[in-house]
Specification:
Blueprint: H1 4-20, H2 43-46, E1 51-58, H3 65-78, H4 84-100, E2 108-117, E3 123-131, E4 137-144, H5 152-156, H6 169-184, E5 192-200, E6 205-213, E7 219-226, H7 230-239, H8 250-258, E8 274-279, E9 284-290
Parallel strand pairs: 1-3, 4-6, 7-9
Antiparallel strand pairs: 2-3, 5-6, 8-9
Helix pairs in contact: 1-6, 3-4
């Protein structure tokens, strides 16, 4: 069982990864198919065969039973694996996260046993014990080194939790995602941040301080669309919300892609089909959208 201090370090790392925003900084990838675009891997090649049939939480908890049942249901729906060990590890982590989403930030979880069922099909039954610890509320969320968005009220409103409300791990991650989106809509593609979490154990409050590194603002150098004829390309760019020399805007790029689903048959955040070539010296970005058909092996 990991100590809560180690778990906090892990969560900080996860939130920092969200701040880094790997998808926005994705550069041109090496094509892996004859069409130049990697085909999606079928889900059966990603997911194993084992599912969870039953989850039992061993112990007496302050968290209401209906909420426990919701967490158990979510785990059963989401966890898959190729071994009992893999399924158990995922389930234990998701159980802890479920408690953390309801204020029990220092919760720890362990498996007390796993049974492999073979009839009527292979499934796993799990017993998980959670040590809740104290329940925390939001003390304050503050920001440092915010220059492009100077209004801290605007930044604070990007986080769904209000001061005094129950602290939630998922809502914290959502706030970080909103923060990144706000900056990439203003052209700050290299935006990063480092979240710092501190506790007031007397009042059971959590304080989140986010140190921002906005980076430089980028302008569009060019927009290229692969796999379409010149007339179609010109039409898309003419009607599109983005153009050359404009400040890069992730929301408008998403809108351009979603306006043409018959041409762009991929998600608007798919790094395999959306390439960004950054030139740090000139502060510009070249965008390539790969609309070439995917050739399955």
């Amino acid at each position: 069982m990991r100590s809560w201090s180690v778990q906090i370090a892990v969560l900080k790392s996860c939130l920092t990864i969200l701040c880094l925003g790997a998808q926005e900084v994705q550069l041109a990838a090496t094509p892996v198919t004859t069409s130049g675009t990697p085909c999606p891997v079928p889900m059966r090649h990603i997911l194993g065969e084992l599912k969870i049939a039953q989850i039992t939480f061993a112990g007496s908890y302050k968290l209401p039973l209906p909420v426990q049942e919701q967490i158990a249901h979510s785990i059963r729906q989401q966890v898959r694996g190729s071994s009992v060990e893999a399924v158990t590890a995922q389930a234990v982590e998701r159980a802890r996260a479920g408690w953390q989403n309801h204020g029990y930030f220092k919760a720890t979880s362990t498996s007390e046993g796993a049974t492999l069922n073979t009839v009527p099909r292979q499934t796993v039954s799990l017993t998980i014990r959670v040590e809740e610890g104290p329940r925390y509320r939001v003390g304050a969320i503050t920001f440092r080194n915010n220059r492009a968005i100077g209004n801290v009220v605007v930044l604070r409103n990007l986080f769904p939790m209000k001061d005094g409300e129950t602290f939630s791990r998922d809502q914290t991650a959502k706030g970080i995602e909103n923060l990144r989106s706000a900056y990439t809509e203003l052209g700050y593609i290299n935006f990063t941040c480092i979240p710092d979490i501190t506790f007031d154990d007397t009042r059971k409050l959590i304080f989140l301080d986010v140190d921002l590194d906005e980076g430089e603002q980028f302008y569009i150098r060019s927009i290229d669309i692969l796999g379409v004829d010149e007339a179609t390309r010109a039409e898309i760019l003419h009607d599109g919300p983005l153009s050359r020399s404009q400040v890069y805007n992730s929301r408008l790029l998403k809108l351009m892609i979603e306006r043409h689903p018959a041409i762009f048959r991929f998600a608007s955040d798919d790094p395999a089909h959306i390439w960004r070539d950054l030139d740090e010296r000139t502060g510009t970005v070249a965008i390539s959208l790969d609309a070439r058909p995917c050739v399955q092996d």
